[in-house]
Amino acid sequence: xxxxxxxxxxTFALLALLSCNTDKLDNQTYMILDSVEYxxxxxxxxxxxxxxxxxxxxxxxxxxxxxxxxxxxxxxKNNGNWKIFSLPELHHLGDFLNIGDGPLELSSSPSxxxxxxxxxxxxxxxxxxxxxxxxxxxKLDVYKSxxxxxxxxxxxxDSLPQYLFDFIVIDSNTYFCKEIxxxxxxxxxxxxxxxxxxxxxxxxxLNLSSVTSGMNYNILSTMTKLSEQHKIIVxxxxxxxxxxxxxLDGLFEKTICLEGKLDNIRLIENLVWDERIFRFSDIRxxxxxFGVLYINEEEQIYQKSRKKLPSILLFDWNGKPIVKLKLxxxxxxxxxxxxxxxxxxxxxxxxxxxxxxxxxxxxxxKSNKTRSN
Length: 373
Hints:
Layout: H1 2-17, E1 36-38, E2 44-47, E3 52-53, E4 63-67, E5 70-74, E6 79-86, E7 92-98, E8 116-121, E9 124-131, E10 136-141, H2 142-148, E11 153-157, E12 166-171, E13 174-181, E14 186-193, E15 196-198, H3 201-207, E16 222-227, E17 232-237, E18 242-247, E19 253-257, H4 265-269, E20 277-285, E21 290-298, H5 299-305, E22 311-315, E23 321-326, E24 333-337, E25 342-346, E26 353-357, H6 359-372
Parallel strand pairs: 1-19, 2-23
Antiparallel strand pairs: 3-26, 4-5, 5-6, 6-7, 8-9, 9-10, 10-11, 12-13, 13-14, 14-15, 16-17, 17-18, 18-19, 20-21, 21-22, 22-23, 24-25, 25-26
Organism: Rhodonellum psychrophilum GCM71 = DSM 17998
Signal peptide: 1-21
Keywords: Signal
């Protein structure tokens, strides 16, 4: 009996240790929030099967995004940089955006999945595109450009900071920004509202994280998305084994760790680049959940001879794990067509573009949510 009691006490002590108390952790060496949850198992796991080749064979594609019944591909081309296709037929609808020095041209190929916002305005689809080198914001009328087969684009702001690591359009005058600071040892988050900078407590805490002077500040790099519906920001760390969630109003925050121990920035600094772990590659936000592409492989192996097949991890907007989707092939980005219930995947190393039927999985998720409510 005493042994049972001891076991229970030890178990509860361990759970308390792994729960939300991060007071003893140094915020300079851990880019985390006050509430930390450790997730090592998912309620549901599915091995994706029966992949289908999309038939897309375009040289120079590097990422893509799905919105309603269209897919936009970003390519390395200087003219017609974005290629747009209909779904599910994949009919070519046009090529748009040019690289150049003109006021309505871009400095380099803009991502369709990062530092860009797709949103419906007055029934038409608009794309807000941040130019990394020029520090300007452009607005592309996607539907109008498709309809008239010519570029409908306007300049929204030409005085934004250059070389922002993360950029999110919150509204027409308000932007979330992340830039280098403190002698290139920190990456600083703030809200830019008509040129005025503010930050809430959550941002201030994350901004404390730093690398040692002279070290590569990309250890702190993230891919950041905003759920417009929930007003929650998701930060996916490329080289750290955790994800940060926090609301714009500062009332909700959570760190989700994918292992039993948080990655320590100082310990990562002590590793040569080849030995560091490439944790995540992509993130997408949806109404009911968000998903991250989990790589979790040493950099040298990932770049040369990938061995671990990746997984797509889905979480609800409270940070709770929902589903792990195990992939049968290597990918670098993904997105979901909710009209056809299909998952599209792309791999930048092989140029392979596949899709998977998610009908049964999404139906099960909906039924589980209905029962839980």
